Amino acid sequence: MRLRQIGLGLALALSVAFQAHADDGQTAYDKGDYASALAHWQPLADKGDAASQDGLGSLYALGKGVPQDYAQAITWFAKAAHQGLPKAQFHLGYAYLRGDGVARDRNVAISWFRKAADQGYQPAQTILDHMN
């Protein structure tokens, strides 16, 4: 039992550490320091951190600090979206709506928007309202 509690405590500590570094990436991104955002997010994204994966997707989708590459953006957005991150689900839906890096597919876009909206992500609800 004690070993299990230690394991749970370690997992929680790592989760908090990942979030702190992901937040550092977001702070750098917001300041326009895309190289620093990339440096913060890449190792975390490689380890499965959904927020960092979504951040990388944004860098690639917009060509900020990296060459614009929709295929890479979709890869990262999809990894985060499949983990349930609503912002990434919205980004993936938007890519399908526009056909950025994927075949344009309104139905798939709506499906991703609904997943995000069901979690209370307001931009997804707004776009769904405009699509109806």
From TrEMBL:
Protein's recorded name: Sel1 repeat family protein
Pfam families: Sel1 (PF08238)
SMART domains for this protein: SEL1
Signal peptide: 1-22
Gene3D superfamilies: Tetratricopeptide repeat domain
Domain of life: Bacteria
Species assigned in the record: Rhizobium jaguaris
Keywords: Signal
InterPro entries for the chain: ISR_Activator (IPR052748), Sel1-like (IPR006597), TPR-like_helical_dom_sf (IPR011990)
